[in-house]
Give the backbone structure.
Amino acid sequence: MHALMTWLALPQFGLSTVFVVAFISATLLPMALKSTIYKAQLQISDLDRQVYGEHNLTLALHPSETEERLMVRLLAYALRVPANDQRGTLQFARGLSDTDEPDLWQRDYSDQVVQWIEVGQPDERRIGRACARAEQVMVLAYSASTPLWWAGLETRVTRWRHLEVWKLEPEQSQALAQLAQRSMQWQITVQDGQIWVSSTASTVELQPVPLWRGGA
């Protein structure tokens, strides 16, 4: 390996191995860590909340993120998008890139956080910080480890009355991940807690389970 790096340094041009390593780190490696862009067109018919509409969205798949998590983020958008923009719009935030932001949030025109939405298994401190900043907080957890995560957290977060925690069964989130494409068209119907997500290829049926609904 050392011989290869020495050869790449091109000593005949006066370039050192240190220079080559620094050059690769500064140019080639960041290029490999760029986010992948997905486009989604959602046609939402939420009979439970009386919310209907079409939404054209652009999502960035973080280098450390799976398509399963990305699709759960997209589902969270569909389940919480407001009926109108009187208090701002629901937007994808930089949750994986910025610890001060959630996965999705809705902010009104005075910059007050109306909704703060986390996907996955945030810890108590992160949930507490969200509850201190937002009027409504929702966590949408998924994966087989959710019961273990919730068992260690339940008694410490249920004091927050404006917090909701939901669980999506792992087989359902995995089925949702199968619908992932760089360009997607989904029809989403919600009725009596049941969710049907239809793409051009197939339909997935989902039913998130409430773990905690402070305001219920």
In short: The first helix runs from residue 2 to 8. The radius of gyration is 21 Å. The helical segments are 2-8, 17-32, 67-80, 124-133, 146-151, 154-157, 170-177. The chain has a mean pLDDT of 89.
